[in-house]
Write a sequence for this structure.
């Protein structure tokens, strides 16, 4: 009579996995039109299960067909959300020979180049908007594909020219790997976090890419010239120019510590 109470370890894992999946879907679609669509799909599914249990073959058959077609429709409707999900799980593993050379994986890229720091300070003083991504282990091939491959030696004049307001490459992010500028005019995903409405698009993009990878992002505000740094889904604003090097070094130490912890667990 009470056999349904006998729950095994596999049953618990199954329930927890479904609960986590539903929570993640809710978190990803909360506050969007997608939430209303999901609620409609859940309602149809519940009705379909109920009609099958009541042996209502005609209604359950019709609803079953709607659900089968609906699965394909969901992939089309939720293309942006699915892409965001896949980015969270892991960036695309696609790498061509050029990107393998520009983006070596498995190690932290050190930051000891003053050329970039000088460029950021100069752009801050002139209130030139900038969005600069410093790569680490994460594969950014998907992001680089959205921009223009540069593959040039990093220098202060080049960085400033890329973000000059009349430059054709100023709109978007610049990807930097060590002392090389990998690409420019790259499109970054906007953050899914709840941020103040006053947060600009550059800062939202910086948070967005830092949410799904281990990069360090430098942002220069076009309105105020203020310098901000994003890493691991956190944004630190109002970085003084003379403290910029120390702040970046602190993030690199944090990344190395995280990598060492992962290696120790293995």
């Amino acid at each position: 009579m009470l056999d349904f109470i006998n729950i095994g370890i596999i049953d618990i894992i199954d329930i927890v996995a479904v609960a986590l999946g539903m929570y993640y879907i809710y978190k990803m679609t909360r506050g969007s039109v997608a939430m209303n669509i999901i609620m409609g799909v859940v309602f149809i599914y519940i009705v379909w299960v109920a009609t099958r249990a009541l042996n209502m073959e005609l209604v359950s058959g019709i609803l079953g067909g709607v659900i089968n077609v609906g699965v394909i429709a969901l992939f089309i409707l939720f293309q942006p959300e699915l892409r965001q999900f896949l980015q969270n799980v892991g960036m695309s593993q696609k790498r061509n020979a050029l990107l393998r050379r520009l983006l070596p994986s498995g190690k932290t890229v050190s930051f000891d180049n003053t050329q970039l720091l000088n460029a950021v300070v100069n752009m801050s003083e002139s209130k030139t908007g900038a969005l600069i991504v410093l790569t680490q282990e994460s594969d950014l091939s998907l992001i680089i594909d959205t921009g223009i491959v540069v593959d040039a030696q990093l220098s202060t004049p080049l960085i400033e020219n890329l973000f000059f307001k009349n430059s054709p490459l100023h709109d978007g992010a610049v990807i930097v790997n060590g002392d090389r500028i990998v690409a420019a005019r790259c499109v970054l995903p906007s953050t899914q976090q709840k941020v103040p409405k006053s947060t600009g698009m550059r800062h939202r993009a910086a948070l967005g890419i830092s949410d799904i990878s281990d990069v360090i992002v430098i942002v220069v505000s076009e309105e105020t010239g203020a310098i901000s740094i994003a890493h691991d889904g956190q944004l630190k604003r109002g970085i003084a120019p003379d403290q910029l090097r120390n702040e970046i070094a602190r993030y690199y130490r944090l990344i190395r510590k995280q990598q060492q912890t992962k290696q120790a667990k293995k």
User: Anything to note?
Assistant: The first strand starts at residue 130 and ends at 134.
